[in-house]
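Bug #77: duplicate submission created two jobs. Keeping one. Sequence:
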Amino acid sequence: MMATFSARGTERRHARRQPFSLYIRVLDDETDKTLGFLEEIGEGGFRLETNESFPLQKEYDLRMEVTPDVSDKLFIFVKARTKWSKPDIFRPDIFHVGFKIMNVGPHDHEIFRRMLDKYGK
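Kept job's structure:
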């Protein structure tokens, strides 16, 4: 699960996310547009670093680049919903966007778990 926020804006995360040590590109699978780069991952979601804010509660069909040491293919496919979006406190042109995973196939989920185990700090 991803973080949720209380009425006061404080974060209430249900599952621990780990910083991600690779710069993995995440694309909108429908438009081929690069949405951002993976920053943190967890069992139920992830955070992207991006150049734009995202609308909340919008679902995206995403394609994540993966490396050959964790996968037998170039991309995994994930349906995810935006949960929060906020600007970076030091670089106002950068945003951090939290996504909750809504659906992922069994094989792609296995690859995602290998990414988390191998590259999560």
